[in-house]
Design brief:
The structure holds 2 protein chains of 2 kinds.
Chain A: H1 2-23, H2 27-47, H3 51-75, H4 91-112, H5 125-131, H6 133-143, H7 146-167
Chain B: H1 4-24, H2 28-52, H3 57-87
Classes of the chains: A mainly alpha, B mainly alpha.
């Protein structure tokens, strides 16, 4: 069961990276461990036969977005989180308990109900291997999903303009 | 390939870690990172379901989530830089007034 072993290795990498994001005091290390977690996720996408998503995850998420975070962390030169007394002392304990509650609820949902009740789609793994995952995804993207695709372009444009307007230095 | 439950439980773990990080951490940038973590937990569930149901819709939704995450990161980080300029700090506990 090489596939199973690979899954557990990648899942371990992803979870370890995510725990490090939450636990490490220095934001720089948090960003870098999130990159590690994203690389693990990209491997998981590959194991799910989603090659295009895996590549985009590495190039766009781990490459572009995380580097943006890294630039900002270095720009404003953050050190360790200071050990000031918390304004709400039970914050950490309460947060962890809430998290465990959410996790227990989600897992209970997944193990109690039948998961795959929907109708099967048009793209089983054999067909994807035949036409190519990227080609199939691209075709669906510019036919069935063309309107959300265009809206995505408008959203990114507005995002860029907004970021420039917000972060520009005002000269008076 | 591992069964669907394992992928879903992993995605629940990622989402939960994101929630805990948002509640527990006080640095605005780390809070943003934890939001990205939650988005990725949702993405993994989308791709896993899409793959097990022989459909591409899950992967397409992941693209849109990634685009929203990119726009959100750009705007959010610009806001963090602004807050830092005004307050010399990115601690969310320091940003407790609507006016500067």
């Amino acid at each position: 069961m090489a596939g199973q072993a690979l899954f557990y290795f990648l899942a371990l990498l992803t979870v370890a990276g995510s725990v490090a994001v939450v636990a490490l005091p220095n934001p720089l290390y948090s960003v870098l461990s999130l990159v590690a977690a994203f690389l693990g996720l990209a491997g998981l996408y590959l194991s799910l036969n989603a090659q295009f998503v895996a590549v985009v995850q590495v190039i766009v998420y781990a490459g572009a977005i995380m580097m943006l975070f890294l630039f900002v962390v270095m720009l404003i030169n953050l050190g360790r989180e200071e050990r000031l007394p918390l304004r709400l002392p039970i914050q950490k304990l309460a947060g962890t308990i809430i998290g465990l509650g959410i996790f227990a609820g989600l897992v209970n949902l997944y193990v109690s109900a039948p998961l795959l009740t929907g109708a099967k789609g048009l793209f089983p793994a054999a067909r994807l291997a035949e036409v190519g995952s990227v080609q199939a995804v691209g075709k669906v993207l510019v036919t069935q999903y063309v309107l959300p695709f265009q809206a995505m372009g408008v959203l990114l444009f507005v995002g860029i303009v907004g970021a420039v307007v917000l972060a520009r230095r005002r000269t008076r | 390939m591992a069964p669907l439950e394992h992928y879903l439980i992993l995605s629940a773990a990622l989402f939960t870690l994101g929630v805990v990080g948002v509640v527990v951490r006080r640095n605005a940038i780390v809070v943003f990172l934890c939001i990205e973590l939650m988005l990725n937990g949702a993405n993994l569930a989308f791709v896993a379901y899409g793959s097990f149901l022989d459909s591409l819709d899950g992967q397409l939704i992941v693209f849109f989530v990634m685009a929203v995450a990119a726009a959100e990161a750009a705007i959010g980080l610009a806001i963090v830089v602004l807050i830092y300029r005004n307050r010399e700090s990115t601690d969310v506990d320091d940003v407790n007034l609507l006016k500067l």
